[in-house]
Amino acid sequence: MMGSENEGFEEAHLYASKEEMENLVLDNPLNDSNSYSNYRSAMSSAISDTSHPLAPSILVTPADSDPILSPPPYRDHLYHNSPTESSYIEPPPFGDNVGDVNGVENHSLNLDNFGRFSRSASWSTSSSSDSEYVKITVSNPQKEQEASNSIVPGGGNYVTYLITTRTNVPEFGGVEFSVRRRFRDVVTLSDRLAESYRGLFIPPRPDKSVVESQVMHKQEFVELRRVALEKYLRRLVAHPVIKRSDELKVFLQVQGKLPLATTTDVASRMLDGAVKLPKQLLGDSSVVVAPHEVVQPAKGGRDLLRLFKELKQSVANDWGGSRPLVVEEDKEFLEKKEKINDLEQQLSNVSKQAESLVKAQQDMGDTMGELGLAFIKLTKFENEEAMFNSQRARAHDMKGFATAAVKASRFYRELNAQTVEHLDTIHEYLGLMLVVHSAFSDRSSALLTVQTLLSELSSLESRAEKLEATSSKVFGAGKSRNRKMEDLKETIRATEDAKNIAIREYQRIKENNRSELERLDKEREADLLNMLKGFVHNQVGYMEKIANVWTKVVEETSCYAKENS
Amino acid sequence: MEQQRSISGSSQSPRSPSSQPYLSVSVTDPVKLGNGVQAYISYRVITKTNLPEYQGPEKIVIRRYSDFVWLHDHLFEKYKGIFIPPLPEKSAVEKFRFSSEFIEMRCQALDTFVNRIASHHELQQSEDLRTFLQADEETMERLMSQETGIFKRKPADLMQIFKDVQSRVSDVVLGKEKPVEESNPEYEKLKHYIFELENHLAEAQKHAYRLVKRHRELGQSLSDFGKAVKLLGACEGNSLGKVFSDLGTKSETLSDKLQKEAHQLLMNFEEPLKDYVRSVQSIKATIAERANAFRRQCELAETIKLKEINLNRLILIRSDKVGEAEFEYNQLKAESEEATRMFEKIMRLMNEEIVRFQEQKTLDMGIAFHEFAKGQARLANGIATAWRSLLPKLEACSSS
């Protein structure tokens, strides 16, 4: 009954850090009463030299935190070389790959033997074509100097990242290639894609994070950005349409300067527009929207006149007496839109509750651990000061209890780290909702363009009618009337052309919306199901472990049970 | 809530009486009486015994918290050296709220209190105990109002004791006398142990209390999560929606389990730990009493010496005050011997008590650990089972 100090700790040596700390605390008789603080400082030093395979990508690890607590890096690595801690956990292996092996590391639903998913939302995973893969890695951030005259003296430092692509897709014309890109290039890529693929659910690019870049340590920020870029690019190649886009190909392959048109900032555009406006009003330049501009929204462009017209139209839509000539009639779409809004609300709600749940699980684990530690100290104390055998017996019981509490605590925290990952699907889809809204607004702005052009057309035509009807009462006015008529007819023709292009664009976007919604529904169903599976498997696995830990204590203290009954 | 522990069943004291006579007590049925500031809880105290000193095989009386305090204080005064079982805290603030949890815990603690007295080989023989267990309510009230002097002061209040000790010490210091303390290394060790133990236990109890809270919080968040998931399922529709709905329902079920476990933890683990802390504080009170007794013995020894010298001087000069002085001297001698007896009795008792205490605590903690582990295993298994039952549906969903 009074076993040795090391009893029950043999298996503890299999585990990382915490049990080792436990040993440290218990085996060292010279340990002073500050054993708790010893534990904590030992714990943090253990973190820094742990052979945790995810250690290299651990971003921000404050001294007191547990490596387990930084979930994001988990997602982007394979679990096959798992740390020692997971060797203890074997919930039933669930299914094999759902969906296809396409080599993209963010695999759908690969539950390895350790009961954890290398999960990712399948909306960011291509599950359509078999055996084709595009694997992207972002690495090797390097500081570079702005080539020439920057206004800021000594300024112009920026970071480039090495973007490596491995693929067997023939369109790329290569098997493996790398380019160096800076963040600004990514912004450009994202903007060009948004223009070319209106109506699609394009994965959102990483934030510019201007504040963070100033506030965070350079190294940490760069690493954060590297991870975000990798995730973004991988999502892009997983999108069935975007993966074939020229913009993306160019971004991934063309060496040197990125040959995509850069986006000028809003101020410059407005300035350009302001310059153009007087000419437009005076009739010097064409007031009709050019074809290549029609396919872009008015807002954010250089054509202020068009902006005003569409604004007027939208006000007329909302407040005007008459119905616009073309409206959003697609009932199915409207229903879908309602559903999407509803979905977003529920996702947001679940997200909030998931956060509370995660916090509660974390707290449970932490407090259980603290309780265990308090009893470890008590055990030591009773052993040191023991004058009676009853004390030694009690110390022995306490040790068993404390060990179990510490183990259970560890399990809770591991469970939680994985819960965070699984439930992260919710957050991913919330992020996706923004993208959906943006695609919907592509549609509505295209519609607005059509409506504007239609009403313009209608007013031009009525002007033409009026002009036709006026007889030339004044001598010589006939010629000017004819000339005006010619001009008017020309304008009408151009507007007619623009209208047709706008309508085609609108249809195109509508179709994009529709197909994307279909894809979203399918993938969302799969992803949410997997999330639930992962969550549930996780809970089952760890709860079984925790139950075993305590069952052992029940057996060890069963002698007291008889007395109590 | 009823704990009927008969003397014959307990193996706590090595000196329990033979299995024939028994004294079994339970404190139960708390009832809130009165209003507002005057509100208090009354408890039924049921005594079952075959001891001749008692009025019959069964007696039921109604007692309130202050009655228990009366009993405690009397025992403390009369049985110096014995670790009087501790009372639950007075808690002037919680009184107003009187949550059902608070009442349950207090009732359990009072039951433990009385039972420990009833199973202590010396305390169980006290007349005060008999009075407490049998006197009708009017008698108790009369007794309470008759309390004067030392009892009104409630020496059970530890702070009061220490204040007294402190003030006496400072008197001694001001009187330029050295404070007297035992120079007994083993006793020093014991004192150090007790004081350290209290710190450790207080910390453990703090975490135990937090753990109870964590269970409640986890239960609450699971419930909220379940509700949210259900709403999301309603959004989805079809089979996935059904699965979400099931998950949400399970989540709410688990929330109940967690709340129940939180309560179990509170009553069967956190409360025993608090009781442990109180017991240690009670020992500290006894330590203070021993210090008092020791000091009194020393003071008297000093005084006697002086008196003896004085007496001899008077005898020598054949003063007519000799008789008086002799009388005083003899009186003091008797007092001194009494004080020495008292002190030695306390020493002896404490040595026995500490053995009993350690054994008792090993038993109590063993039970507490057992209950804790049982509860946690039950909880974890319950959670695993509940989640596991969802797996077939989840599998069915993905294959469709």
UniProtKB/TrEMBL annotation, chain A:
GO biological process, one term: protein transport
Domain PX per the UniProt entry, residue ranges: 139-259
Coiled-coil region list: 326-360, 450-526
InterPro entries: AH/BAR_dom_sf, PX_dom, PX_dom_sf, SNX2A/B, Vps5_C
GO MF, one annotated term: phosphatidylinositol binding
Pfam families: PX, Vps5
Keywords assigned: Coiled coil, Cytoplasm, Endosome, Golgi apparatus, Membrane, Phosphoprotein, Protein transport, Transport
Subcellular location: Cytoplasm; Endosome membrane; Golgi apparatus, trans-Golgi network membrane; Prevacuolar compartment membrane
Cellular component GO terms, alphabetical: cytosol; Golgi apparatus; multivesicular body membrane; retromer complex
Topology with respect to the bilayer: Peripheral membrane protein
Family in the record: Belongs to the sorting nexin family.
The protein's name in its UniProt record: PX domain-containing protein
Organism annotation: Juglans regia
UniProtKB/TrEMBL annotation, chain B:
PROSITE patterns: PX
Keywords from the UniProt entry: Coiled coil
Domain PX intervals: 21-140
Stretches of the chain forming a coiled coil according to its record: 322-352
Bias-annotated ranges (Low complexity): 1-21
Transmembrane segments: none
Gene Ontology MF terms: phosphatidylinositol binding
Family matches, as InterPro entries: AH/BAR_dom_sf, PX_dom, PX_dom_sf, Vps5_C
Highest taxon in the source lineage: Eukaryota
Region (Disordered): 1-23
GO cellular component, one term: endosome
One Pfam family it belongs to: PX
Record protein name field: Sorting nexin 1-like isoform X2
Species in which this protein is naturally found: Juglans regia (English walnut)
Source organism phylogeny: Eukaryota, Viridiplantae, Streptophyta, Embryophyta, Tracheophyta
